[in-house]
Amino acid sequence: MGVRSWKPNEEILLANPVEVVGGKVKKPGKRGRKPAKIDLKAKLERSRQSARECRARKKLRYQYLEELVSSRERAICALREELEMYKQWCMAMDQGKIPSEIKALLTGEEQSKSQQNSSRHMKAGKTDANSNSW
């Protein structure tokens, strides 16, 4: 029988496999940072501060949403009033009456159309004058 020589380095390497990466010895097992003993008071204070910030963000979010709801409610009221006005105009027109607001709108459109037509005629006259200058 042969006597085997004992090599301490081999036994240690087999019991605790070690990996050398970039000149640093890394042992297998848990990855990442090892949890250091964190001061409990500091941890509690950070937790409280985080909770305060969370409540402040929540408060701002609710304020924003309340303002948004109130602005939408105001818009709804304005649209209801406008709808009621149009209903009254339709009822008046069904009775053969033309509301003064509609008359004003129609006369305003007629005036704008007449102004547009007169400006078109003036432009047409200028183009005719320019074409005759040849």
TrEMBL record:
One of its GO terms (cellular component) is nucleus. It is found in: Nucleus. Signal peptide: none annotated. It comes from the Eukaryota. Gene3D superfamilies: 1.20.5.170. One of its GO terms (molecular function) is DNA binding. Coiled coil: none annotated. Residues 40-89 form the BZIP domain. GO terms for biological process: cell differentiation. InterPro entries: bZIP (IPR004827), bZIP_sf (IPR046347), CREBL2/REPTOR-BP (IPR039250). Its main location: nucleus. Residues 107-134 are annotated as: Disordered. Belongs to the bZIP family. ATF subfamily. This is cAMP-responsive element-binding protein-like 2.
